[in-house]
């Protein structure tokens, strides 16, 4: 399974790691994914959601 948020579609970003001497090597920033149980069509289903999306879902649920 890919490292992608099931709701927002956020995926890993790539860029350069910089050493003290400013040598550049490639690196990856992964998304902060959390496995949560969500009701889909009345049935609980496990999905991977980014932490930001989870925070938004919890805020919307409280209203």
Automatic annotation (TrEMBL):
Asked if the Swiss-Prot or TrEMBL record annotates the protein with the keyword Ribosomal protein, the reply is yes
Q: Which UniProt keywords apply?
A: Ribonucleoprotein, Ribosomal protein
Q: Write down the InterPro entries for this protein, in alphabetical order.
A: Bacterial_rp_bL28, Ribosomal_bL28, Ribosomal_bL28/bL31-like_sf, Ribosomal_bL28_bact-type, Ribosomal_bL28_sf
GO MF terms held by the record: structural constituent of ribosome
SUPFAM superfamilies in the record, alphabetically? L28p-like (SSF143800)
**UniProt-annotated stretches for the region Disordered:** 1-21
* GO cellular component terms attached to this protein's record: ribonucleoprotein complex; ribosome
Q: Which residues form the signal peptide?
A: none
One of the Pfam families matching this protein, by short name: Ribosomal_L28
Q: Name one GO biological process term.
A: translation
Family, per the entry? Belongs to the bacterial ribosomal protein bL28 family.
Database matches in NCBIfam families: L28
Protein name, per record: Large ribosomal subunit protein bL28
Species: Breznakia blatticola
């Amino acid at each position: 399974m890919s490292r992608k948020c099931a709701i927002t579609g956020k995926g890993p970003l790539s860029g350069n790691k910089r050493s003290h001497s400013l040598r550049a090597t490639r690196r990856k920033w992964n998304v902060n994914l959390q496995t949560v149980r969500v009701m889909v069509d009345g049935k609980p289903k496990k999905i991977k959601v980014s932490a930001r999306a989870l925070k938004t879902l919890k805020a919307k649920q409280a209203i």
